[in-house]
Protein: tetrahydrofolate synthase
Organism: Kineothrix alysoides
Amino acid sequence: MRSYHEAEEYLLNVPKFTMSAGGPSSTWLTRKNTLEDTGRFLELLGNPGSGKKVIHVAGTNGKGSVCAYLCSILGEAGYRVGMFCSPHLVEMRERFRINGIPVEENVFTKAFEAVMDKIERMREELDNPTYHPTFFEFLFLMGMLIFEEKGVDYIVLETGLGGRLDATNTIKSPVLTVITEIGMDHTEYLGDTVGKIAQEKAGILKPCAPVVFCDKRKEASEVILKRAKMLGIQAFPVAGGDYINVNLTNKSIDFSFHSRYYDYIRLTVTTKALYQVENASIAARCIEVLQDPKVSLKHLTEGIRKTVWEGRMEEIMPGIFLEGAHNEDGIRAFVQSVSADSCQGKRYMLFSTVSDKDYESMVRILEEKPLFEMAALTRLDSGRAASTEVLRAAFERYGSGRCEVFAGSRDALEFLMERKEERDYIYIVGSLYLVGEIKALLRRRTDD
């Protein structure tokens, strides 16, 4: 059996949207496998997860946060909850959580080997000697095995990309589907309008389950409602008027949520991220729609209050925040939270992103208000990384140009920490990959 790190290394060499001709050391063929193939693989594995209550979550922004809130609420009610999410920040096993805790290394490797053992059989059944699960398909298959072994009551599944053609959409009988905020991201795969992207996300809707959705963009909402009507299912929107009287304190946010049963109820999210009010409200509506008799109002309020989701305005050290916003809408929500923070000194920013994101729009939004004293720019340790040259040019074009360029995230962070005084804040933003790099860096520093 491979070690945990050997399994991780194998998976990291599997392309994200392709299949192989004989394994990671061979030539990779650029073709995504069909949902039918993934479903067939699940059958070979014994249909793990069948009979479990599945909540299927898609969307552009907020998917992981909504999943985390749902897991916390259901866990508070005494349920054993499996959560499949992406991407991971530091370790791949973070993608598989039981009641919020990443699975153990040996659980990860056991599931990895179980999938590996069936690849040759799949090749025979498909009469395709080059078949291999893509990176995400492989992880999804592992996740279902893990949740079966752990005997979970609920499985909360976050889609990887889109919805209609996502590997998670092999699940045919969820108890609930959820669509969070929809915006412009992954347009090369999902379409170049909000409506087209919404069509892909709405592909997870099923005739057996109601849908809860973020009712923020009319174009997206119309697509979701049309799809729900076609399937004959109930659709429950969550709009801005459903969360009011928002009060930001030093470490948390209180707000009133418009309940279907209790008029308005007071909820608290333990974060400085204003956008989590919307995500917590979506999760609260999901719990109401589920109508699970075991989940009480107290479970709902306590589950939301206790939720901690890494990399979303996470204060990793005093005055140093990690934020995974990586598209136009995410950055806009981030700026809203920064504008409302309690910083009494200067704000500094460490920024990087990947080249296939709309970094021009991201930088433009970041520089619309004079929030930051300066920006430290770095290149991610990734083949998809945006160059520091193009990032510097964008900051000079849209802002004051007060920025410094660094070869790596370590140097950039140390530069800012040397300048930071007690009342100052440092925000690290632009990519979850950057968040992961910083968390790994600080973890190594702690271990040393």
